[in-house]
Amino acid sequence: MTDRTDSNGRLLVVDDTPVSAEVLSEVLRKANYDVRTARDGLSAIEIVKQDPPELILLDVIMPGIDGFETCRRLKANPDHAEIPIIFITGSDDTDSRVQGLEAGAVDYITKPFEYTEAISRIEVHLRLYRLNRTLEHQVEERTAQLRETVEELQTMQMKLIQGEKMSALGQLVAGVAHEINNPVNFIQGNLVHAENYVNDLLTLIALYQKHTPNVNEELEEAIESADLEFLQEDLPKLLKSMRVGTDRIRNIVKSLRNFSRTDDSKIEKTDIHDGLDSTLMILSNRTKAKPDRSEVQIVKIYGTLPLIECYPGPINQVFMNILANATDALEEKYDSMSAMAREEFQPTIWIETVSPDDDHIEITIADNGPGIPAKIRHQIFDSFFTTKPKGKGTGIGMSISREIVVDQHHGKLDCQSSSMGAKFIITLPVSQPQLDRDA
Ligand SMILES: Nc1ncnc2c1ncn2[C@@H]1O[C@H](COP(=O)(O)OP(=O)(O)O)[C@@H](O)[C@H]1O
Ligand SMILES: [Mg+2]
To answer: Which of 51, 119, 275, 377 counts the most CB atoms within 10 A of its CB?
Structure first.
């Protein structure tokens, strides 16, 4: 047997005439080719299937299927269609040569053999075949690389757009919050004085009433029409409720400013509960009761957490993405239910925070929505994967979240799901490597 690795090429000779097959094979082996032989078309096809050669020398006239048919069948299989086939024809058989070339052969050699010529033809076709394969291989490789790059670019572009949007929106919200903050502070600051003045005035009136029990008719009428008694009682309450109102506005503004912290470039020691609460506040319009939907109940089970080092803006975005998905899931489940089932169903989101050890915190966000089917669970973190209708889902929320948690913060983002609902577990380190902080 010829050593296949050192041979000039791996050939298959298909010829039913033992003598002519042997002679040709012998010559080729001497020229350092690795030669196998087949006696008919079908066994040739079988050999090619098992262990494809680099070139086939094919006799035309054979029992069973002839050379042309063998050639056609080999060419029909895309796995070996590229293997060059050289026909062996009689020296005066022009017809066969033409038919052979039509069947897909690359060349022919004639009997009796002119060995030097035959070998140079084999040599040329082997070289062409190998060159072709290398090229094909390179093209395939490049195509795959290009495809990967295009995908990466698309993802990156989408994330940039999303990031831009978030940061533009963040800036807008921060700006609006800032603008609201001033007048609200102004109102609240003056309310304190107003309360004092009103109290003084009321005391004064009380004194007048005490020291001037008999008033004239005009005054009597005015007191009555103003319903002074009620006014005295109600005015302080009214001022108090105005203060409650401005307090609430101030809280909303604080949440907005907290949520929209746009300074992504700085790691800060952050209270995660503040982030969660701000996010919930912003989402509250979606979780509260609607005419056709009951309220989403939020159950907070907050543990004692240390301040953690993180980029607050992006971390809030992660909370937003996960909480928004939970709300979507609950809506979807609610909408798919019968009126009767709805009576029994309390859409709920549980938010639990714990500090499992000194170096980590864990935030679990669970819902009692439909859950995530096992067969798509591994896909939800892929860019652009969404099960939501066009216009509603973009499929980047989870992929961005994973990037923020895992790549940016060296944390973990896990997903569990059952028929009871979905659960996302975010694990974050309490401190970040020094390197990032200076970046
Ligand atoms: N809490 C959840 N319950 C059920 N499915 C979820 C939940 N969170 C995420 N998913 C699934 O993960 C997919 C990807 O989520 P995401 O990346 O945020 O994209 P989008 O929300 O735009 O679809 C969603 O389309 C949904 O199928
Ligand atoms: Mg989403």
So the answer is: 275
What's the 119 CA to ligand 1 centre distance in angstroms?
A: 64
Would 132 be classed as within a structural domain? no
Top mutation candidate among 320, 321, 325 for ligand 1, by most atoms within 8 Å of CB: 325
Residue 280 sits in the same domain as residue 377? yes
Q: Are residues 253 and 268 in the same domain?
A: no
Q: CA–CA distance from 430 to each of 261, 359, 360, 412, 433 (Å)?
A: 20, 5, 5, 13, 10
Beta strands (DSSP E) in 118-240 are: none
Mean pLDDT by 10 residues, the chain (439 residues): 70 91 92 95 95 95 92 93 92 84 92 89 95 92 92 81 74 84 91 93 90 85 88 91 90 81 77 94 89 92 97 91 96 93 95 97 98 94 90 87 93 95 98 67
User: Within this chain, do residues 248 and 376 fall inside the same structural domain, yes or no?
Assistant: no
Report yes or no on 205 lying in a domain: yes
Alpha helices in 212-287 (DSSP H): 217-225, 228-259, 272-287
Considering its fold, how many domains does the chain have in total?
A: 3
Question: Which of 165, 365, 398 has most ligand 1 atoms within 8 Å of its beta carbon, as the pocket-test mutant?
Answer: 398
